[in-house]
Structures are given as structure tokens and as C-alpha cells.
Amino acid sequence: MKIKNFLPILAGFIFWGCNEENQTNVFKINTFAIFFFISITIISLSGCENKDSYPDFEPDTPDVLSDDVYEIYTVLINEYYSYIPALVAPQATDTTQDCSLAYYLQLDSLGIDSTVIAQAVQLNKKSYFLDNKIKPETQFFLLSNAEMDYYKLHSFQEMIERYNANTIFFWGLPYIYETNIPEQKMAVFSYNSYCGPMCASWYLVVMEKKEGKWKIRLHQLTAIS
């Protein structure tokens, strides 16, 4: 309910209460005061609609994952999405990423062993719940399954308004493996970003950890809508 809807009513109460004939009647004056107070209360409450009116959601229990997983996501966001003020992602990893991972890794001449591909695909056949350990330079929010279901049922516009974010990520879980080079690790995964109808992109990512730091070796756009 908006304030402007109550202005004619409030104006009528004020005009009626200021009428000299009505002021001679104590009962009417008291009645005016009561209605005036009720009107002001309604107006005040109607102006209090904000983000706090959204329901609260409990996070899902996170799975035990290595710190490398969270460092990989953080590096990716800082590298490619730090210009966006706020980002969101489901707390659960996306099991649909295993299909694109298998398809594009086999097409790309990356020199990645087929065993690695098979293990990366197998890893992503299951969904994992992430912990709140992704700490990029921009604001980042993880959404529980219950919260995601709420926005699917209502509208993703509510999510945009609540977090002031217009981009949502659907992550695949990185498959991390050792190489023949001492103290070197590699990671492969896929993800997609969604910012609205006809505004989605899918990517294949290959990262390398050397001297204790993850760096992106490949960030390949694989599909767009």
C-alpha cells in the first residue's frame, strides 16, 4: 500500500476535525484524534517496506572441500568480474556442468589426458555444497537451495533487488590434480553466468597452481545466448 492512497482520507480527517461545529462535540473530537492517529500509523508502516521484508533462509551444510577450490573461484571472479558490484551463486554446485566439460575438453587440443577428463566429469555428477569462503574483491553471496527455490517460484527480480546483483553463477566443481612437475597443480572446470533472458554464457576454465598461487591458463567461451 502506498502513501498517496491515504492522502485523500487524511485530508478529509483534517478538514473534518478543523470544522468549528465538530469541535464543539467532545466525542467527535476524540474520534477525530483516533482516526488521525490510525492514519499516521498506516502511512508510517507503508513506508517501511524494504529488503528486510524478504524471508530468511538457513544455509545448507557445506561439504568438506579443499581451500584450493575457494581460491580458484576467488581468482576467477577477481580476474573477470571485479567490475560488477555484487554477484550471487547457488551454494550447490551445478551437476549439468559435467556434460559441457566432457564435450569441450575432448574437442580442445589442450593436451589434457583423457583420464583427467573422465575424472573431472565423474566428479561433477554429484552436487556439492560450498562454504562461505569465496572472498573476491567485489560483494559475493551464496544462496541455499531453499532460497534458490524461493526465487524460482516467485521471481529472480526479487533476488536482484535483494542483493543489488544482476549476475548469477552456476559453478562446476574444479577437478584438481597433480602434475609431473613438483609443487604444481592443475584444475579444470566449467561454469556459466546468467544475467537474464538471452543473457547467458558458458565457459571452460583451466588453471595452474605454481609457487603457491593459482593462475588462469584458459578461460574459453564455449556457448552464449
Please explain how this structure is put together:
The chain has two domains: 47 residues; 158 residues, no CATH class. The protein has eight helices and seven strands, in the order ααααβααβααβββββ. The strands form two sheets. Strands 3, 4, 5, 6 and 7 form a five-stranded antiparallel β-sheet that branches. Strands 1-2 form a two-stranded parallel sheet. Strand 5 and strand 6 form a beta hairpin. Helix 5 packs antiparallel against helix 6. The longest helix has 21 residues.
What is the topological layout?
Elements: H1 7-18, H2 20-23, H3 26-46, H4 67-80, E1 86-90, H5 97-107, H6 114-123, E2 139-143, H7 145-153, H8 156-163, E3 168-171, E4 175-178, E5 184-194, E6 200-210, E7 213-224
Helix pairs in contact: 1-3, 5-6
> What low-confidence regions span 5 or more consecutive residues with pLDDT below 50?
43-49
Number of domains: 2
Please bin the fraction of helical residues: 25-40%
Distance from N terminus to C terminus (CA atoms, Å) equals 38 Å
Order of helices and strands: HHHHEHHEHHEEEEE
Beta-strand residue fraction: 15-25%
In DSSP terms, counting alpha (H) and pi (I) runs of 4 or more, how many helices? 8
Which structural class is indicated by helix and strand composition? alpha+beta
Keywords:
single chain, alpha+beta, two-stranded parallel sheet
Q: Could you write a compact summary of the structure shown?
A:
This protein has 8 helices and 7 strands; from the N terminus they run ααααβααβααβββββ.
